[in-house]
Hints:
Layout: E1 2-7, E2 12-17, H1 22-28, E3 39-42, H2 48-59, E4 63-67, E5 72-76, E6 84-85, H3 87-90, H4 100-107, E7 109-113, H5 126-134, E8 138-142, E9 145-149, E10 159-161, H6 167-177, E11 183-187, H7 193-204, E12 208-210, E13 216-220, E14 228-231, H8 236-249, E15 251-256, H9 264-272, E16 276-280, E17 283-288, E18 298-299, H10 311-318, E19 324-328, H11 339-344, E20 348-352, E21 355-359, E22 368-370, H12 374-386, E23 390-394, H13 397-400, H14 406-411, E24 416-421
Helix pairs in contact: 1-7, 4-6, 5-6, 6-7, 8-10, 8-12, 10-12
Amino acid sequence: MDQIIVTGNGPLSGQIPIAGAKNACLTLMPATLLSEEPLTLTNAPRLSDIRTMTTLLQSLGAEVQSLQDGQVLAMSSHDLTSTRAEYDIVRKMRASILVLGPLLARFGHAEVSLPGGCAIGARPVDLHLKAFEAMGAELELRDGYVHAKAPVGGLRGGIVEFPFVSVGATENALMAATLAKGTTVLMNAAREPEIVDLAQCLQKMGAQIDGEGTSEITVQGVDRLGGATHRVVTDRIELGTYMLAPAICGGEVECLGGTINLLAAFCEKLDAAGISVEETPNGLKVARKGGRVSAVDVTTEPFPGFPTDLQAQMMALLCTAEGTSVLEEKIFENRFMHAPELIRMGASIDVHGGTATVKGVDHLKGAPVMATDLRASVSLILAGLAAEGETVVSRVYHLDRGYEHVVRKLEGVGAKIERVKEQ
Ligand code: EPZ
């Protein structure tokens, strides 16, 4: 297994290119199941999760070609051979559940393994299933699988009211509604940029969708969808992660491809902490010129609020802030597992339920630490960039799920970082 070794090396400077969004690509790829015609995605990120989704689609009989060094995905579901998503693939990645809506809508039936537990929370899929029931589907949980059946004539349009915001349930219901008979209204829908990106791709395929990006999305079902070519939106979580690198160690870095509207709530917190963020023709320039950052309080919320996927990275910054910060995690019930690892590096953090109190210390010290999930792993790397001495991060396979070329990108702005085989 690989490890990443980071040595604190002072201020950073230069440019970091930001890739296409993992969480957009993982819902755009299943959209190919809605049509007989080819769907091509450009600006696709090169990540292990994308490879898992490729394996899943191919197991259903879809063609998925990875071109141009993996940045272009040419897909076709013209000759699908199965509507069953096997546990062996689904257990590797929860987003696999996003094939259920498209399969049910186009073929009238599907069997998809339930994803099982996750490090950051229980993460049930009940809202997904309720949405399909609201469109007339019959669902049965049997042998660890969801067995779904559409009514004769296919799914019917309906009112889907989410009791709380769910990104995945909104995406699954949105895809299914494109081929349902009549009108579907998704109420209290998620508003994330990845949802808008999915809706725009579906519109290119011929879907009739209004209200994407708001909490009420209306879909007029059509008989069939065509093909399209679609550019995957920038990864705002990768963007936010690299914006924190100069914030933590000082210096100035331009993140290529980023825009403030993808991360307004996050940028407000950086500003309050004393970090300057400036839009440039190519992206966002982030700088920390002065001394220590100021403590700020953060509460994670659905978009346009502060993203939960940047909470761990923000905690790494606040470990050496002037003063005490309170972080509230409102989306997932178990998303502070990076805290004990940061404490190993000398941080002062108190966790009670969904609240973490971070008392800023002068500096962190390098130590051997363990990655526990995707965002936790990169928060340890960020902390290591500013720590005295060497930080050795183990279990970096978590990182590969969501970050491409971390070592090359950070080295490119002056970080001292390397990837090694575990001894
Ligand atoms: C998406 O997960 C992202 N994953 C997550 O990113 C992200 O943290 C999350 O949205 C919130 O922004 C992908 O897009 C692949 P939810 P998703 O449904 O769709 C509960 C990362 O690091 N819930 O919005 O699974 C759920 O347990 C990952 O890249 C139900 O109870 O998130 C959670 O507490 C991690 N029942 C809350 O809602 C349901 O049926 C929000 O989950 C669905 C969700």
